[in-house]
Input
Amino acid sequence: MDTRTEFSEADTAAPLILHLSADYPNPQQFHRRTTAIQRLVTGTDYGRHVVVTMDRTSLPWKACFMDCGEDKGVRLYSYRYFGLPMGFGLAMAMRRVARHVLKTMKAEHGLPALVHAHKLSFEGIAGLWLVERFGPDTRLFVSVRGESERKVLLFKPTYRNLMRRIAARADKIYHISAWFRDTYHRYVPEQPEKERLLPNIVGNSTSKVPVKDPIPRFVSVFDLDMRKRKGMSDLLQGFAAFRKTHPGIGLDLIGPGSPEAVEAAKKEIADLGLGGSVEILGPMDSKTLFEVLPNYLAMALVSYNETFGMVYLEALFAGLPIIYGKDTGIDGYLDDIDVGIGVKPGDVAGIAAAFTDLAEKSDHYRNQIVASEQILHDRFNPAMILESYRQDLEAILNPAQQRSRM
Output
């Protein structure tokens, strides 16, 4: 069934905004995606939005481009493109993507007023190529996501000049990862008039966090297929050390995973002697997760190289203190409030100590979350995030109209 819809005459007068993202849910995706970028795009009530969402395949015969019609008010295309692993030939692959997108836009929509590349070092390459072909009137927004950008800026020095060119051409630069800004500025000059934080939007934000008497169990939420990057082994080893002095406290693991991943996790749990205290609960939909989270003592996840980590915010808005990774994930957003403990990824002793601290000072940390609930809400309020993004779009694409609103 063709789900495409025609824009109304009023709609076609609105500016056309093209989004390039490898993290937007789509029918061809190889891995589960968060809804962070989708919430930003579909929640913005300004302009007409076209999204090209991308997946890489190393098998050229599996590359394909799919018109997915309209999804949540957004025209969606899914592009499974050919690219080599480990970032070999990255610029070439992104420019090949850009050429296909250019052809599609010209045939189906015309030239966009703005391109938002949702990562600097991947989609940003395609975005720069496109705006240079679209012409000087097409503007460029770029998001900087620490997990991906770190790999390119640190380990592909020949790409640094290209990253600087993209940043110089961009009208707005959004730092999703507060922890990565200092590293980013080692390689790309600071442009304070263009740059600001843009946190991800979570589904359970509130100005009134729930207050419950917790059960004696910690919780960790992650995809078991990503257990190595999520630091599961370190977490379990730290929990095993903590259990020696706190045998009455357990740990639940929530999240999806292939049968092989679940079996590997079960084996590791058994090998550490945690069979009676650590439970794998499997996946939960968002509604169920938000209902069960407030019952736990705290949420623990010390990932390696996490861009943002929406689950940390989801836990805080459920009233749970958190154990999180230093210099990754949510780090940098919570420096002025005492709502959790940061631990360097891989520091098993530090993880064990954090479990002990949160278990023995649970009331303190939970009271601090209640005391900081308005700060958390104001900092991560979806309406505020969406409105600030809308204002940026309008300021760049229709400055006269924005001035008339002020």
Summary: The longest helix spans residues 90-108. Confidence is low (pLDDT under 50) at residues 1-10. The chain has two domains: 9-202+381-405, 217-380.
